Amino acid sequence: MRPFLHLYILFLLPPFLVSCVDVEEYDNTCRDNTEALWRIMDERYCFFTEKKEQLGVDWDDVHARYAANVNNDMSRSQLFVFLGNMLGELRDGHVNLSASFDVARNWSWKESYAANYSDTLQRRYLGTDYKIASGMYYRILDDNIGYVYIGSFSDAIGDGNIDEVLLYLAPCRGLIVDVRNNGGGMLTEARRLAARFCNQSTHVGYMRHKTGSDHDDFSEMEEQWIAPSAGIRWQKNACVLTNRSVYSAANEFVKYMKQMPRVTIVGDITGGGSGMPYSSELPNGWSVRLSACPMYDVNAASTEHGIVPDVPVSITDEDMAKSIDTIIETARTLLSE
Predict the structure, then answer these.
(1) What does pTM read for this prediction?
(2) pLDDT over 60 at 13, yes or no
């Protein structure tokens, strides 16, 4: 027998989350792995209220159903699917079960929706002579609108890189920042980029920390602010393009940009994922990742299930047939006006 919970922190979290917690010991059996997983989630997961209100998920009912159906004769593969289904009831993209042979996940936050993004269409706008700076693909469109595509915040975006991009695009009359299909990455990079769009410290939302094992054990709301960058800052109108595959740190970026002056969010509702994740371990060595610290918009509303754009628009079938990206064209029209 050994402790079931060893936390491996993915972000800098408060003291409650950064130490190993030996709450109870479980054997490496199918039943005990199921119980250990349910209890880890029960004590650490941060969105039970939101999931119950929006999805009708009752975590105690989940426990009753799965505890009644698990048996110690399950094969490794059967147990993995079984536990993955249990976690899938939460429909949270930050909740995953990882083994050496597979990752159980629920991506219904994006898979059940229109893509509203096409590599083929984007190539029409970027061409082949676009510039690349630390994961930012950029060029000046033929109507003197600047276009920057950022597909991930997983890699560091240097301040020098951003300075060079904004300096090159400075003659443009407007700027499009396209984060469609950006599944997230590092919050520091999202904040670094957002800081180029304000000239004074800007309130962008709130966050809380889990402080205990009960579902409602949280710290008070802590304000989130973006301070203006010391580097080059964009002073003209800008549009941020979104779709359902904008998630996690990219979802936070959209939340930040929604509060910036002269910025309009254009496209589809984002995918959400507003809880900072951390990982734990089951008795059999499988790793579970879950949402830990919830984040909110300036009205203290959860952004776990997505952020509504200022100008909702989807790529139409007619435009797709003409190789036109409706979302990009809508942004160009707004910036031209």
Answers:
(1) 0.89
(2) no
